[in-house]
Specification:
By secondary structure, this protein is an alpha/beta fold. It contains six helices and seven strands; from the N terminus they run H-E-H-E-H-E-H-E-H-E-H-E-E. Helix 3 links the parallel strand 2 and strand 3. The two termini are 26 Å apart. It binds S-adenosylmethionine.
């Protein structure tokens, strides 16, 4: 069985093609942005957002070190991400990844929040193309994490099954509130 991060990445790798438009909604240190940038190649576009200047800076450095040139950086909450996207991305985004929680080795008080995460998911769903996926890696062991986890699970479970398939992938016998994956695929 794949561990959580490799499983999340496999959901992305299965569907993202060169030339695709994709989003990293919480770019942090840029690991997911780099994966997306590599998959869409030079003809594609990655939109990478974070609320922390430091995260955007680190992601820029990671991308430059790998000599890639297909990432647009958005220093804003993912709740406002739709306002930054060009109109051609509507119903045209292949994949969106969210890593919820705080940036490792950084200020643990700066965490993703239930209201903005829910707003981001709701506003970005219409941007998915058919077969496109939102992949969320949900860390919830920190203070505030459980409320966000419950909010995201509720939103995802209530999505219309005629329009979306929703998956939860979780190891249920691990200690210390391990992260799990929720994936939403547009039919
Ligand atoms: N995917 C990242 C990586 O590969 O390094 C790790 C992401 S980290 C778990 C969560 C990130 O979400 C932090 O960098 C934090 O600043 C960011 N964040 C928190 N609230 C946010 C918001 N409303 N909009 C966008 N990013 C947010």
């Amino acid at each position: 069985m794949l561990p959580i991060i490799p499983f999340a990445h496999s959901l992305i790798e299965e569907i993202v093609q060169p030339g695709d438009q994709v989003i990293d909604a919480t770019c942090g240190n840029g690991n997911d942005t780099l994966l997306l940038s590599t998959l869409v190649e030079e003809t594609g576009n990655v939109y990478a957002s974070d609320i922390q200047e430091q995260a955007i800076h680190t992601t820029q450095q990671t991308i430059q070190e790998h000599k890639r040139n297909n990432v647009s950086y958005i220093l804003d909450s993912h709740a406002n991400l739709a306002e930054h996207l060009p109109s051609c991305t509507k119903e045209n985004i292949a994949a969106i990844i969210f890593n919820l929680g705080y940036l490792p080795k950084s200020d643990k008080k700066i965490i993703t929040q239930p209201a903005s995460t829910k707003k981001a998911i709701t506003q970005l769903l219409p941007y998915l193309k058919k077969g496109g996926r939102i992949v969320l890696v949900i860390y919830h062991g920190h203070v505030g994490g459980e409320i966000e986890k419950d909010a995201v699970l509720k939103l995802a479970a209530e999505l219309d099954q005629k329009q979306y398939q929703v998956l939860q992938y979780q190891f249920i016998n691990q200690q210390n509130t391990p992260p799990f994956v929720v994936a939403i695929e547009r039919k």
